[in-house]
Amino acid sequence: MQPSRSALLLLVAIAAASGCDDDAPANPDASVAADSAELSDELSMPAVPTVDSSKFRGSESCGSCHVQHYQEWRTSMHSYAMVDPVYRALVSIRQEDFAGNQDRFCLQCHSPIGTRSGDIQPGFSFENLQNITLEGVNCETCHSTSAVQRPFNAGLVLDVGGPMKGPIKNAQQTAGHQTEYSELLQGSRMCASCHDVVEVSGLNLERPYEEWLQSPAAAEGVECQSCHMAGYSGKATEVSPERDLHEHFFVGVDMPLTDDYLPDAQALDDLRGRISQLLEGSATISMNATAAPAGQQIDLFVSLHNNIVAHNIPTGSTFNRQVWLEVIATDADNNVLYETGTLDANDDLRNYWSDEDPFGDSDLLEFGSRLTDRDGNPELFSWRATEHHTNSLSPLYDRTSTLFIPTASNTNGPVHIEARLRFRSFPPHLLRKLALDEYLSKLEIFDIDSLSIDVDLLAP
Ligand code: HEC
Ligand code: HEC
Ligand code: HEC
Ligand code: HEC
Ligand code: HEC
Q1: For residue 137, which atom of ligand 4 is closest to its CA?
Q2: Is 0.85 topped by the overall pTM?
Q3: Cβ distance 346 to 355 under 8 Å?
């Protein structure tokens, strides 16, 4: 755990007030106070409103001039951040667990404007929120950001009512708003302000920026925007000159689960295409096997290489993500000799969380992370967990595992071995636990890479 990030939120508040930066030391005792009092933070979860929500115009109004930026953002997870049914279900459980005392915690990033304007009050209900709050991470959240006070937990400072900040040095004059050139918006620290997440307990939940800081990408100046906001040539508005612009799809790994989120089926297909493109080739499988006579086991060496120069695979909410290796070996008569990473009758992996076959896959290679409670048992909810064990692959890193494929004396070769590195945003058991069964059919699996080899059986 990084000491600078294990700082508790309460401590962060104190540190900010006393002018310290993000290097507040960890204090394991401070979590006790968080349970009894309403959790707040001067910057990101103020108990008294610090911004006036009527000063924000809403993303649709920006879209009247910035048509393409708006359309792209509308299909992105930034605009889904407050409507996501998984998010809403988790927030509701957390509301009950803390009797409303920590109701601003999740909201500080998923809707910074709503949290700072006072719309989010203890015991709030999603049904009664203002439209601007429900926009989630909207245009004005990012484009009002004038500074990043800490690179985690909504550390962004908003210059409400100020000029729109962006990467254009000589922007046209417009009646729409004033403009201001910003270097901040072109760098990873901007994204870090929300993408690195530290629980109230001090547990590091998400840390793409921390990973990036230690990666070759940071040294080479390859920022988050390089991959998640690809450049193109176009016009920022109909009347603007041709310039280098940046995509606002913010492609990651998530697809919306609700039908009414995207305008049509085509938009969903396009999004699926962008996700496959990002994922395909982001890691590579290689395999090597020792030849064996029928009746003996084949030793299979499987290596995975993370091709991403900037962060782990997976990154972000690794405790929900599933990245795993599926290997199926069959003989020449198509009998299955061995399998790992295959699904049970509920489409779950056959691990601890499987209702059907919890001990069915002792070789299972998973590359996400696992939360556990104080007794060491797996835990689904971050705020009930005390430890976070990660198994994700570091940038440009290789990991090799050995699997043993049994054969019988009457097995006919060659043995055909197929491997796939698979990705799923959420496990089905999480949706069932949240009573979101209606979305189970929406969960999709993407294959990051696949490879097959044939192994001859030696004469005995
Ligand atoms: C009346 C039309 C209009 C509206 C409405 C409008 N803009 Fe703009 N915006 C422009 C024009 C024109 C430019 C300059 C483009 C250029 O120079 O290529 C611009 C530039 C920008 C820039 C780039 C600034 C820079 O220096 O890099 C950002 C960011 C921006 N707008 C965000 C927004 C946001 C957010 C909203 C909604 C709150 C919005 N705009 C509403 C017309 C508009
Ligand atoms: C104000 C907080 C905030 C800021 C700033 C922010 N993000 Fe996000 N981002 C989020 C949230 C919240 C989500 C997830 C919403 C959801 O799925 O419910 C998200 C989702 C994403 C996703 C999609 C992830 C997926 O799995 O599909 C990408 C990619 C992304 N952000 C990239 C960026 C980049 C690049 C930057 C910096 C330019 C940035 N974000 C800045 C809050 C933020
Ligand atoms: C070199 C290109 C590259 C850069 C730079 C990069 N990413 Fe990614 N990012 C990817 C790829 C490829 C994936 C899909 C594989 C994965 O999930 O790790 C991804 C996935 C993600 C996801 C969704 C992941 C998940 O598994 O839930 C988030 C969130 C994200 N990146 C945030 C960031 C942030 C924040 C930065 C900057 C600190 C950044 N990325 C920099 C390539 C990049
Ligand atoms: C998560 C943060 C985020 C959100 C949300 C966001 N933007 Fe941006 N936007 C950026 C960043 C970062 C850049 C600059 C990227 C770079 O230079 O690498 C940018 C660039 C721009 C520019 C300058 C031209 C260009 O493409 O570089 C305009 C105009 C703009 N955004 C408008 C909008 C509008 C309109 C919305 C809402 C519909 C919006 N943005 C939502 C982060 C965001
Ligand atoms: C520090 C900012 C921050 C806080 C606080 C935060 N989130 Fe998020 N949330 C994000 C970002 C960034 C993403 C995108 C991560 C990714 O795609 O890997 C995200 C994604 C999500 C998602 C969709 C993807 C997934 O893997 O689950 C859910 C659901 C979610 N958050 C729920 C919550 C809940 C519940 C809380 C409160 C316990 C919370 N978030 C607190 C920033 C935050």
Answers
A1: 5
A2: yes
A3: yes
